[in-house]
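User: Batch of two.

Assistant: Item 1 of 2:
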Amino acid sequence: MDYRRLGASGLKVPALSFGAGTFGGSGPLFGAWGNSDAQEARRLVDICLEAGVNLFDTADVYSNGASEEVLGQAIKGRRDAVLISTKTSLPMGDGPAGYGSSRSRLIRAVEDALKRLGTDYIDLLQLHAFDAGTPIEEVLGTLDDLVRAGKLRYVGVSNFSGWQVMKSLSLADRHGYPRYVAHQVYYSLVGRDYEWELMPLGLDQGVGALVWSPLGWGRLTGKIRRGQPLPEKSRLHDTASFGPPVEDEHLFKVVEALDAIAEETGKTVPQIAINWLLQRPTVASVIIGARNEEQLRQNLGAVGWSLAPEQMKKLDAASEVTAPYPYFPYHRQEGFARLNPPAV
């Protein structure tokens, strides 16, 4: 397993990490992902550790805390061998104190997560969404207190916009608070919006990307083809509306390029889609999920080799879309290109 520094921090994370959203799954979204109990989860953790995958990502909102609980049971007795990443800020109840990133909410959310995980510290806490109703100084000051108390090692965010990340980093520098070192983002061959603003920001500010849904919300599994109906057992029947939308023609163009490279390499479509991400700037780790051992072992096959430059170019061309304003108007002009060298 390749290990990479997480942004500008000293923390090294594996190129692949494991997403525990399938642990204890319940409800229309997480139940469709998977519902591994503690025994099955422990077996999946065993396989991950054997392969060098020691970072496990979860969130309090995943199955209303059940994912954290099952992960905590699965790593019991080997806490020092793993890195735990969890997230908070999304609603965990209907009351006013059940969501957001206020001081009271963050302190209680961290304490609750520590209990569910069965540990006394979290390696990486990420804010799951930007809280526009709480001053950023209050958020950062609270995170600083939690880091100083030894309950958090590093902090990051997830699904923030560029200005939200940059303002937070600026205020952290001004007040001496911990900087965000990670941004957990949606990024895939059928969803490259991350490249327009957040990737250049990450390069400039030392914020590493942890990639969620690298297979385009289940669309790049190798089971979806042009002219064929959605497979009967696909979770997209139940979960498509929860994830980022993708136009059919764009999806099929990417899938056909993946199929061609699969024939050349002997690798599977998911392995190729993940390997492409691992060669992109700022990507520290790609979060893979699995409902069972077979899926996990297939995803682990995405490392230990690299796509050739011409194969990367083929995938780049098939997945490219026109960027929105203000990113597209002048990008073909020579002078603009000199002012804004590409991030890739």
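Item 2 of 2:
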Amino acid sequence: MTALATETNASVKPPRIGLLDTARGVALLAMATYHFTWDMEFMGYLAPGTAETGWLKLYARAIASTFLFIVGVSLVLANTPEIRWRSFWKRFAMIAAAALAISVVTRFVFPGEWIFFGILHCIAVLSLLGLVFLRLPLPVTVAATAALTVAWVVDTWIDPALLRSPIFNPRYLAWIGLAEMPQRSNDYVPIFPWAVPFLLGMTATLIAMRTRILERLAKLGTGSSLPAKAGRHSLAFYLIHQPVLIAIAYGLFVIVPPEKPNPVETYLKQCNASCIMQEGEALCRSFCQCTLDKLQTQNLFAEFRSGTVKPDDGRILALASECSANTQ
């Protein structure tokens, strides 16, 4: 009887969970606060690299993880007991079109750091992969989630170089997430490791559907709150909020221009922001301070900052190599 009840629970359409819309809306608001920090940095009110280091870096990752977890949850709920193909492809087309538009716009506005695979690109691809897991037995999905989670732990805490290769550095492969040194982007969310929160959301929901948890969550309500309403229109919010925030930041820039940043502080922030994409934060602080000291000692700092001396200059490469060896 228990097995029969379990199968029945997994084969009926799940109830709408207002709490999920609320969680999505709260994540959207958190994302907006982070993006406004980025905008203030872009306008010169914060030192370069501020939004990519320290607690703000962790804040951004927590927001992205929350979004992708919710995407995994929503994919299961929306396509149970069967895949709603028309609704799925409509949603997929909207996300893919928005992702393409963001790539095109940022390619012109930020040619050196354009968004070639951001959060929307990641959601689009993971949604396709999610359909595959919906067709597979639950133990397979659980095993894949566990394997990717272990790979993430290894990559983050044990040996970052173990799973990575320079073969994946070009943009046409960097989206996979195994690049040794991915090219700079204002929003880089590759499949690995970001499939982990997505699959965790799918797995948790598939397991919850075999219990009464979803019904209990649905009874909590909260679907009429302001965050919940925003959560039900997440794509529109995502596309609209950043132009609005940039306009606000630009208005402040015109009315109250920021002070000129300290060049030393700016260099260290930028150096650390680039370095921590491949190395640990503590190691990067030592490396960047070392290169700063050597640039100043050799009277190259001003020329390097102005662009007169390029990063591929032999003197720059030599001091960078020396500092890298000293901080290993």
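DSSP finds 15 helices and no strands in the chain.
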